[in-house]
Amino acid sequence: AAALRELRAQYEALAARNLQAAEDWYRARCARLHERAARSQEAVRASRREAGECRRQLQARLVEMESLRGAHQSLERQLQELEERHNAEAAGLQDTIGQLEDDLRNTKNEMARHLREYQDLLNVKMALDIEIAAYRKLLEGEETLFNLGSGGLPSLNSLPSPTYSFQPRSFSSST
């Protein structure tokens, strides 16, 4: 019985040591697991913060993108309006150019007509100058005849008087 008690005491001491070692091992293991869980929880919190920050940045970028898209559409509309206005102005200027070209053509035609009329009047003037010169010669000739003799008057009256008639000719001029 003493041996059994001793054996039992040894077993109980061994069991107590084993229990103590198991409890120490369990506590150490739990401490490490708690430490790892705390680190994991901190990592999860950091990941969540990072994910939240990424979501905020994504939302900011989406808002910025929508704003830029609206600005782009506005600029496209303005560009289209400017092109339409430019095309309308260009068409108006083309019409003005066409009208000015027509006016220039009409003015040139009118100037050519005036030049022809001027040439015709100049030709008539030259013909009249020639006729006046011829009349002067005739008058000078009659004066010389008149001055030649005083008795020559009846003989001058017997000479047939020359008659001149002016026939305007149409002259064509190249312009």
From TrEMBL:
GO terms for molecular function: structural constituent of postsynaptic intermediate filament cytoskeleton. Pfam families: Filament. InterPro entries: IF_conserved, IF_rod_dom, Intermediate_filament. SMART domains: Filament. GO terms for cellular component: cytoplasm; intermediate filament; postsynaptic intermediate filament cytoskeleton. Residues 65-124 form a coiled coil. GO terms for biological process: intermediate filament organization. PROSITE patterns: IF_ROD_1 (PS00226), IF_ROD_2 (PS51842). Keywords: Coiled coil, Intermediate filament. Residues 1-146 form the IF rod domain. The keyword Heme does not apply. The keyword Coiled coil applies. Belongs to the intermediate filament family. This is AINX protein. It comes from Leiothrix lutea.
